[in-house]
Amino acid sequence: MTHARTLPVGRLEEAQVRYAMGESVKSIARSMGVTWQSLWGVVKGAEPKSQPKTERKRSGRSTLAQDCLDNVDRWEWGSVGEAVVDALADYAQTPGNQRLLQAKVERCLSGSDAWGNFYTRDRLLDELKTPPTALLAEVDAMREKLLGGLPLPTTPRRRVRRGQEFGEEIDSDRFLARVPEVWDRSVREPVVRRQITIGINLGVAWYEKPEAVLYRGAAALALADYLSGQGCNVGLVAFNSTRNPTQSSAHAVARLVLKSHDMPLDVSAVALAVCEIAFTRTIMYVGAMRHWPGRARPGWGSVARLPEQDRQGLDFVVEANVKSREAAETWLRECVEQARAQAAA
Hints:
By secondary structure, this protein is α/β, with parallel strands linked by helices. The protein contains 13 helices and ten strands. It folds into three domains: about 1-50; about 120-150 and about 190-345, no CATH class; about 160-190, no CATH class. It has helices spanning about 10-20, 25-30, 35-45, 80-85, 95-110, 120-130, 135-145, 170-175, 210-230, 265-275, 275-290, 310, 325-345; strands at about 65, 75, 160-165, 170, 185-190, 195-200, 235-245, 250-260, 300-305, 315-320. α9 (about 210-230) links the parallel β6 (about 195-200) and β7. α1 packs parallel to α4, α7 crosses α9 (about 210-230) and α9 packs antiparallel against α10. The model is unreliable at about 45-60 and about 150-155 (pLDDT under 50).
């Protein structure tokens, strides 16, 4: 057995998620080949074993959302794993909210709750790693229907440099003139890759069906795939924008970084987070409510558009009013036409 510090960051994050899902520290440590004593501080947030959960401080910062100048409360998670660990913890800004959220998590991950789309903890954890085939098929169908006929770059841009000391072809004029540098050489021309950020408002009302999130997320991933094929560095960010979630918050926005610009696009790694309503409700909604000030309102507020401040830096945004396949296809078609127009300009 080795020390937990020898594990890469991704494995440490996996350990935190597995612990939040209810697996014991000793079981996780045994499967990862590390001592459970060294793993304890990782999964428990580096707390002493006797410290109550209600007193925990996450990542050395307060758990209360930031109250910004535009009177919007904001919170951000840096990854899907961080959001899962946060949502399945046991704390809140008021004792009443803590009891409410704990009961909500137990109920919506019981496997029999329609609001949680009949998920269990184990199933949620498994499908975060390996999304269901039907979900990935919907993303592929959305992409093929609108993007299948669009031309994608197949070869890098190149230019011919003349008068080189070596190359593929001889310049006959230079050869006859006895110029030493007689070769022509084809070289790759560096092209500046554009950085594009796609925002997804995952807001969904309590009565809406799973399809309301599925088509929205599939369209966003299809756009990300198209732009990546066009040579862009694509970033993906999900939001939960809610009006009046608590008695002390008029508007609250939770932000989840799904993919940074320097990461390759792996659709399966983020598909569940943007296409599955269970993730939206169990992770985004519950996790965000742990940070909002004041007592939760009945229904936890209403779905809202992203404030202007949160839209800054986003090149494309799919809003919460995109709830059907037709609306998602229309949004995707408009975005592709806009991207092609910008590339041609």
